[in-house]
């Protein structure tokens, strides 16, 4: 019954739109295209992209080559991203990746060519510890920890936690507030320095992380930045405690924005001050990658939803997505009132469908050592039961 009500609402919005067109109505709604990369100020983002395109992008071809990060296969050229990176698609498995080793060596050359780019990069890192960005980032991480807590089989369990790619340490802050023994590691020395000033236990090298086992190891939006994600997963798998879990999130190769916009998509980028999203995975690719590292997936889910107005504007040729943002002031999109109302009517249902079909912008995964998967069926079922309940609750809200 609830889905019937949703369908009726969508049909009504479309019929109203058709009637407006027949009657010759020319009412429009105006809105700005969304700002890329919500974890940094728009002006900083624009400045960093423009500096990179002028001084950094020409250096990409000099970086050592690499094969597919999932299966080590060869790829075919696909497109260049809005920040000048060549992306390929693996012939064998379909992974999208930059066929060059994008790491600190490339950015050291870039900063040598443009000293101000280093100043800007450090400033962007320092802003991440500011109140607004801290609040936004930690709100997202709270949800991740709420989910992981479901996996704990004993309320008295002592949890040791390591976040790989921790940045300035927001994850470590959130875990610490929950009484978790938390550590973080990141290759960005500036980010580690900023986090340490807040009293967090952060390290800039895996060799410096305390020699202990961890019940939880996370890679929150991290694997997509790594030259060799398989090697990193294998390294940290060896630091798991018995029945320990690895949790990760990655941007989704099967996301609507990625598939439709490709190089114009604001979050398909190779990086402008540090390595960007140089690897693109979907669920099937993650199964292969994790399997090669000796890990089995226990749980998978999608997160967030796409901005349908941005996508429709792009498909109609009224917007060039990230290219418009780089070119100048934020692009103004105009929609007939009928279209605006119809998109608003279907938006929540589309977001729920993205999650059901795992085409959301972000994929969330919880995994364990392959040999321990049988012992962790209760964890698998608890996580999936919670997901089913949450999806049912969202569907009920849509139909109310």
Indicate the low-confidence ranges by residue numbers: none
Strand coverage percent: 15-25%
Strand segment tally: 13
CATH topology: Rossmann fold
Specify the CATH class.
Alpha Beta
Layout: helices, strands, pairs:
Layout lengths: L1 H21 L5 E5 L9 H15 L18 E6 L5 E5 L5 E2 L6 H10 L1 H13 L3 H19 L10 E5 L5 H8 L3 E5 L3 H8 L5 E2 L10 E7 L8 H9 L2 E12 L4 H6 L17 E2 L2 H10 L2 E9 L4 H8 L6 H6 L4 E5 H21 L4 E8 L7 H23 L1
Parallel strand pairs: 5-6, 5-8, 6-7, 8-9
Antiparallel strand pairs: 1-12, 2-3, 3-4, 4-10, 9-13, 11-13
Describe this structure in words.
With 400 residues, the protein is an alpha/beta fold. The chain has one domain: Rossmann fold (3-Layer(aba) Sandwich). The chain has 14 helices and 13 strands. The strands form three sheets. It has a seven-stranded mixed beta sheet with strand order 7-6-5-8-9-13-11, with helices on both faces. Strands 2-3-4-10 form a four-stranded antiparallel beta sheet, with no helix packed on it. Helix 7 links the parallel strand 6 and strand 7. Helix 3 packs across helix 4. The radius of gyration is 22 Å and the shape is globular. The termini are close together. The model has no long low-confidence stretch (mean pLDDT 88).
Short description:
The chain is of the alpha/beta class. The chain is built from 14 helices and 13 strands.
